[in-house]
Amino acid sequence: MATQVAHESASNGSLVLSNVSLHIDSLVPRSSLTSSEDLKATAAIATGTDGCTDPSDMLMRHGSQQRPLLSAQDSWAQLQLKDRMRWMETFKLNKRGGLVFQDREALKKQQGVFKEVMLQVGSQLLSGKLGVRISLPIRIFEPRTLLERVADGWSYAPTLLKKAALSGADPLGRLKLVMAFVAGGLHFCVGQLKPFNPILGETYEATYPDGTQIFMEHVGHHPVKSAFSVMGPKGLYQLSGMFEFEAVTSRNSIVNRQVGIVAITFQDGAVVTYTMPEIKMNGLLFGDRVVEIVGSSRFEDAANHLVGELNFDANNGFLKKSQGDDIRGHIYPAKKSVKHALSTINGSYWHVESEPAFGHTPVANPLPSDLRYREDVIALKVGDIVLASELLNVMQVGQSYIMD
């Protein structure tokens, strides 16, 4: 997914997803370089009130809080994700589009899952309780929940959304940055281990290094729904919405959807909305495991009468030759068609250059409902697969009882 900022080419007027210098010193206020949690921890270290007296222990516990000693630009560089392409270690590019998953150990764990599910279905048919509960084997899970996976897609908020908020009276430029933010975050969301489904009422609170705050809550079980709000530093923007999660399966593939409209409200009152594309996985039963982004995303700035579209099926063109992962799209006036496009969009959604990205850090004192208190997730983190499976089943039964 293109992690580059969209800008208008001076030569041909087309919108190209490419790298841009953010000029961090002028863009990011010095006081916003660390989150409120970091600032509190740093103050405690400086005054000796954090209860930590051993210097080596202090370094282990609070090494990351020494950042204010650096210059603003150096601090910003230290906080960036060091290797945004680490996820690519288990994939290779597929000539026909998407990525081929090559982690043999993970694929081996997933073998036989379909058969196990079918055995459960058969057992429930015989007992007359079909659809009450289908359990997936814990061996295919990662020790995180779906809420964390969704938050991964916002890793460019501290750069691209902040720049969009500071774009001033340039609605076209702001819309380009929002489109690049959405496309850029997609490559963080293609992991092949299954996250735990959130429990009804489960929450997640986290921050980004610039002070951006994340609040999430799982609010629906049938259908599965999660609400979220992302607050930019100094009130620069608020990203909010609700996703309904759907999975559509066929014989050898599954398509995952995040259905819902996301709204970004900027400090000047401007609002940009968008929808998400889909993630498709082929090769569930046979053949290579291929992961690709499909479908389209729609963006709208209603007040400024602008519409943007990103098409992730650009390689389906009949007359024009294109690469498997090409993006095509347009920005055009709301009351007109793409024939009157103000900008055209092109790029590759697996191509990553030097745009800074940042990870979300859980807050120090979350609500009791926070996902980090889930015992099944904790058990899997420490490697106790048997206990994790037992605890997961208990939670699933309890949630089914509540919903019934």
What does this protein structure show overall?
The chain folds into three domains: 5-24 and 140-362, Porin, CATH 2.40.160.120; 37-79, no CATH class; 374-404. It is built from eleven helices and 20 strands. The protein has helices at 24-27, 36-47, 55-62, 72-79, 104-110, 113-127, 146-152, 157-165, 171-185, 375-381, 385-403, and strands spanning 5-8, 15-18, 91-93, 99-101, 141-145, 194-196, 203-207, 213-221, 224-231, 237-249, 253-259, 262-266, 271-274, 278-282, 290-294, 296-301, 306-311, 326-333, 343-348, 361-362. The chain has an 18-stranded mixed beta sheet that branches. Strands 5-6 form a two-stranded parallel ribbon. Helix 8 (157-165) packs antiparallel against helix 9 and helix 10 runs antiparallel to helix 11. The model is unreliable at 1-71 and 129-133 (pLDDT under 50).
Can you identify the CATH class of the largest domain?
Mainly Beta
Largest sheet: 18 strands, mixed
Spatial gap, N to C terminus: 40 Å
Name the quaternary structure: single chain
Beta strand count: 20
- In CATH, the architecture of the largest domain is Beta Barrel
